Amino acid sequence: MAYETLLVETRGRVGLVTLNRPQALNALNSTLVAELNRALDGFEADPGVGCVLITGSEKAFAAGADIKEMSGLNFPQTYLDDFITAWDRVSQRRKPIVAAVAGFALGGGCELAMMCDIILAADNARFGQPEIKLGVMPGAGGTQRLTRIVGKAKAMELCLTGRMMDAQEAERSGLVSRVIPAAELMAEAMKTAETIASMSLPIAMMTKESVNRAYETTLAEGIRFERRVFHAMFATADQKEGMQAFVEKRPAGFQNR
Ligand code: HXC
After folding, report:
1. Structure confidence at residue 49 as a pLDDT band (50, 70, 90)
2. Pocket of ligand 1, beta carbon within 6 A
3. How many domains does the chain have?
4. Whole-model pTM?
5. H/E element holding 83?
6. Where are the alpha helices (DSSP H) in the chain?
7. In terms of domains, do 147 and 63 share one?
8. What residues make up the domain containing 236?
9. Which ipTM did the prediction report?
10. Are residues 39 and 157 in the same domain?
11. Are residues 118 and 244 in the same domain?
């Protein structure tokens, strides 16, 4: 099915989504969010996809929710339409998602990046939660995810002043895993996504689930969860293959089961 606001393709075992509303710096309107969910539904259902990569343009990953679309909304509309719940579906995906961020990742754009599992940033990337300048605050997880990731002081400052961080500051504060020269961002992000996609898919999915537990439970419960899942991994053919391949000094050929 055709997309109006995205470019969607599969490269090997990587599902690639490119946000594509250049005229609005990839502002996330309702069509884009619906299409993004449709693309992710397809990748989740496709056993040939082991990792998803979401990116934007060189100028903007996404400059936030579409302000022009949002500006006229009233409270009952936002409440009754459950505005934003569709966004959050990105964070509930089970396959690993890498975000490759160049240029602006602001407001909902920063929140979308934080819903992904790994953020790789081009050296021209800029992150921020400028909603306060519009008379609102982050509404797609920004006050919660950013605070857990970078800590209270920086999250508070960014949310209360709307100041942007550059890629280096974002890396120092733990928001991004690596900063990459802009010209190499896509090649490097594809390499990362391909590496993840070459692993056993169920093991990668369980690993994602386990790391995410760290945000949702106590340490003791998280450790218990990790141990249960770790034990369960010994029921997979991929555990046998992975360890046998090491012993035989050859690359593992995972069967994804
Ligand atoms: C709608 C947007 C937009 C947005 C940019 N555009 N951001 N349209 N929603 N979020 C449009 C501009 O109106 C303009 O269209 C075109 O994209 C190019 O933008 P410029 O401003 O001309 O570019 P530039 O001068 O380079 O400035 C870039 C920028 C600025 C600093 C990123 O565009 C900006 O401040 N954008 C808004 C960022 C923001 O406040 N984001 C938070 C949104 S609220 P025209 O037609 O004039 O050429 C949010 C809440 C999420 O995200 C909560 C969950 C839903």
Report:
1. very high
2. 24-25, 27, 63-68, 84, 104, 106-108, 130-131, 134, 138-140
3. 2
4. 0.97
5. none
6. 30-45, 67-70, 75-80, 85-88, 108-115, 147-150, 152-161, 167-172, 185-197, 201-213, 219-233, 237-247
7. yes
8. 200-248
9. 0.98
10. yes
11. no
